[in-house]
Write a structure and sequence with these properties.
The protein is of the alpha/beta class. It folds into 2 domains: 11-177, Rossmann fold; 192-318, Rossmann fold (3-Layer(aba) Sandwich), CATH 3.40.50. The chain has 13 helices and 14 strands. It has helices at 15-27, 41-44, 47-52, 64-76, 87-90, 95-103, 132-137, 150-162, 208-220, 239-249, 264-274, 295-301, 306-318, and strands at 11-14, 33-37, 57-59, 80-86, 110-114, 143-145, 167-170, 175-177, 192-195, 200-204, 226-230, 233-235, 252-259, 280-285.
């Protein structure tokens, strides 16, 4: 689906909203789907599920560790449980249980972390998850998904239900720019080449996919052809697409709403070291916690925007 046409910025639903809606739709035909909540149903959007299927909804209170353990038990009994909370809570408070009761026995639990990244805004750093890729990827057997928009989220939920094994899905709070047309199908584990290019590759995930497309447009005006890859599957990473991009464009930029030291950029660099080394520049959160502010203000302040992606592309090209 690669193109060189300019990207038109339009907003759809937040990925957390798309998650809640998709889960209800799937549960209507699959009675094994159940949900565990940590007293955040109106924020994670599983309140839609609770309204439609109250007998399949389990409120665990403000206790993510217990929620994960309960979800693991439901998975072992043959259910398809989704446990949902803010990413900052489910992956930190529940990490021991995710490790011992989910990853180690490889149970069929689906973990959804909402309010990821810094774009949650005014809630502040205690509730911003900028370590979730690192934590989730550290769990053997887990697939880690990061949908860019509502269409990708719907596909991620459907795939997670069909997949036998643990899955982490990252969701965001603000409305997300539309990347895909309704009904677009994905192959999980395979990057999507959204834009063709031969000079540099912009590797992005989540909200930064739209910024990468906007950056590619600005670079095109300078005569620079930038390839854009949407990495909706952080783990397992599509190393073949990364290596191909390195061979064909010779330079990369990784853009993510996560700590640069331990997120997608680290995984891309590891893949390049194994296959095709190339210069890489990184756009993300640099060795600090963010402040409280509006979502747009925070993305601007911490440089997670198209102009910074384009500038990083120029630096990467200069290092070829």
């Amino acid at each position: 689906m690669a193109t060189t046409a300019p990207y038109e910025l339009k907003y759809g639903a937040a990925t957390r909203e798309a998650f809640g809606r998709a889960l209800v739709e799937a549960a209507q035909s699959n009675p094994n789907i159940v949900v565990c909540d940590a007293d955040l149903s109106k924020s994670t959007m599983v309140h839609y599920f609770a309204k439609e299927f109250p007998d399949r909804f389990f409120s665990c209170g403000i206790a993510e560790a217990n929620m994960v353990a309960l979800g693991a038990g439901l998975a072992m009994s043959g259910k398809i449980p989704f446990v949902a909370s803010f990413s900052a809570f489910v992956l930190t408070k529940g990490f021991e249980q995710l490790r011992t009761t989910v990853a180690y026995p490889n149970v069929n639990l689906k973990v959804v972390g909402t309010h990821s990244g810094i774009s949650i805004g005014e809630d502040g750093p205690s509730q911003m998850s900028i370590e979730d890729f690192a934590l989730a990827c550290a769990l053997p057997g887990f697939w880690v998904l990061s949908p860019a928009d509502e269409v990708a989220m719907k596909e991620a939920v459907a795939w997670a239900i069909a997949h036998q094994g643990p899955v982490f899905i990252r969701a965001g709070r603000p409305k997300a720019p539309l990347i895909y047309s309704p009904g677009t199908k994905f192959e999980l584990g395979k990057a999507v080449e959204l834009r063709g290019g031969s000079d540099v590759t912009l590797v992005a995930t989540g909200l930064l996919v739209a910024e990468a497309l906007l950056a590619a447009d600005s670079l095109a005006a300078e005569g620079i052809a930038a390839r854009v890859l949407d990495i909706h599957t952080i783990k397992p990473l599509d190393e073949e697409a990364i290596a191909k991009a390195a061979r064909e464009t010779g330079a990369l930029v990784v853009a993510e709403e996560h700590l640069v030291d331990s997120g997608l950029g680290a995984r891309v660099s590891q893949a390049l070291a194994k296959h095709t080394p190339a210069p890489v520049e990184f756009i993300g959160v640099e060795e600090r916690y963010a402040e409280s502010g509006t979502p747009d203000g925070l993305l601007d302040h911490y440089g997670l925007r198209a102009p910074q992606v384009a500038a990083a592309a120029r630096r990467a090209i200069a290092r070829k």
